[in-house]
Design goal:
207 residues; alpha+beta; Sulfite Reductase Hemoprotein, domain 1; four-stranded mixed β-sheet; two-stranded antiparallel sheet; 6 strands
């Protein structure tokens, strides 16, 4: 908290929050993005789908074709193909009858290095640094500690006026992981299993 009420940091730090990987509101272009991660498919509230959702739009919203039309108790509804679902939450953004929040199984990921401004360097999207932290409200101590670690390293290593993305570009990602102590894991590698079909993948690390 102290970092955001004074001028202790080398430059502006935009800290943003998102409930899922869709990262609405340019959260993905923030210096530090705290993102809710889901590990279970959405639940279908069959009795509410017809009233709350436009079924064709709900089906079209899924990037992996996991939402299918289905008639339940004589009413139009949808079903979720759990083998295809990637828990992105995109269907919920257009259909509130498909809630995906699950406090017992959800967690938090941290992305950093995003930047909307084109001052000095081009805008960038934030990149994954911590793939999973437990969901421990109301204080989320693990998340706070991880953010503090990032800010301490940034404060000590960045030049005056240098944004987080610019600092990392200068020192390199290997050094960032070394000085923060965050573990580089298989989850940092882009291995989207339906990427070939959707053209939504690459052979590069998410760094």
């Amino acid at each position: 908290y102290d970092y955001f009420v004074g001028d202790k940091l080398p430059a502006k730090v935009r800290l943003a929050f998102a409930c899922c990987l869709n990262m609405c509101g340019s959260v993905g272009a923030s210096d530090i993005a705290i993102v809710g991660m889901h590990r279970r498919p959405p639940r279908v509230m069959a009795d509410r789908v017809k009233d709350l959702c436009e079924i064709p739009s709900t089906i079209a919203a899924c990037p992996v074709d996991a939402v299918r039309p289905k008639t339940i108790d004589g009413k139009p509804s949808v079903e979720i193909d759990e083998d295809r679902c990637v828990y992105c939450g995109n269907c919920y953004t257009v259909c509130p009858a498909l809630p995906i929040a699950d406090p017992l199984n959800d967690g938090v990921a941290i992305f950093i290095g995003g930047k909307v401004s084109n001052a000095r360097t081009k805008p960038t999207f934030s990149k994954l640094v911590v793939p999973w932290l437990p969901n421990n409200p109301p204080r989320w101590p693990e998340v706070i500690e991880a953010v503090r670690t990032i800010l301490e390293a940034y404060k000590e290593g960045a030049r005056k006026g240098e944004r987080v993305a610019e600092w990392i570009d200068r020192i390199g990602w290997p050094k960032f992981f070394k000085i923060t102590g965050f573990e580089f894991t298989k989850y940092h590698i882009d291995d989207f299993r339906l990427g070939e079909a959707t053209m939504n993948y690459s052979n590069y690390a998410r760094l």
